[in-house]
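tool_call: predict_structure(chain=1)
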Amino acid sequence: MKAKCFIICLLLILGSVLSAQVIDVRQKVKDKVIERADQKVDEGIDKGLDTFEETIEEAVTEEKSEKDEKDEKDRQDEEEDTGEVSKQSPSKSTQKQDEPKLQSFTKYDFIPGDQVILYEDFSQDAVGDFPALWTTNGSGEVRTLNQYPGNWLYMNSEDNVYTLMKDLTLPDNFIFEFDVVAAPKDEDFQHSSFYFTLYQSEGEFLDDGLYPGEGGFHVECSDDHWNVQGYADGADGTEGRTEIAALDFNKLNHVIIWVQKRRLRIYHKGQKALDLPTVLYQQVKYNRLRFSLWGQSGLPYITNLRFTSAAPDMRSKLLTEGKIVSYGIYFDVNSDKVRPESNGALNEIAKVLNENPDVRIRVVGHTDGDGDAAKNLDLSKRRAAAVKSELSKTYGVNAGRIETDGKGEAEPVAGNDTPANKARNRRVEFIKL
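tool_result:
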């Protein structure tokens, strides 16, 4: 009886275990099915997302490609319309790694002549005095500036004029340059501006009339615009205005005015700010220079005023005469760094050389007689080498065709006694070999 009960209990236990195992297997199968189904769903989602991302990426790429093609077409159309090379760089996708960087100097094309007519840097005047070669109906004085070298005329009388007491006897074509630091009168004035006037007069030097002499032109220099007005007796006035390349506050500004009979150009900040073909009156013979403030808020400092004749025929001078004397290569003070204003002159020299590949030249630097002779000699040699580097690197002239030398102060073309003569001695010569 006991044995029978034991067997029955054993069977019941085994049945329970088997039943539990069957239930466990069923649960595992169920879990596995769910797990695999989830995995399939995840794979489907991932595949769908991959397809979606590829579609978006292709659309963006296609849109960018179409935009690049449109930009390139617009650039080419603009070049055809204007005849100028665009300053905009090619797209990264089309620009080769070894392709030279695009540069354009077409708007900075002035070239000073080979004769210095007048130069004024106030170096002969004592700091604190009014300059001896000028007159005014107000006040002013020669000062120095902590950030920029040399002596500067500080024009500090509002509603007054400052006139150079010297007849200029300017030719029909000439270039006038000067450095100016424009400062607001005080913190209440947010703008700075002043005038200068070139005109013809046989009367007194001091003339504070709005339109002095028999004819001339006003230029208004401002931190937000340029304005030019030509005038002559018995003629209606002419005018031109632009807001391009206006003056910078409290910084050195190099201003260039190029006069060619009736045409006037203004260059500033490495570009042509104004080009007015008929703003001037051809019958006017300019012989006077005047600066004025007249209610303007600027109190400018000026120096390095220079008049030069119009540019020579560089091709003829180099190929026929064998020598070019250039006053159009500019350097920082006591430095061999070539300034951007040199681009016009360098471009013309390079053009002659590239069109005549058999011509070889020697570039010779010259300084004035101020300072140590040995340092001047070294500076002149370094400047000549810098000119060679620019001609080769920027303008593509074969460097093997160019020799360099420096004479320092050893070969002056004028005395070292006046600012104008010193300016004549500071030059770069290009000599045909």
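agent: The chain has two domains: 116-309, 314-432. Proceeding to next step.
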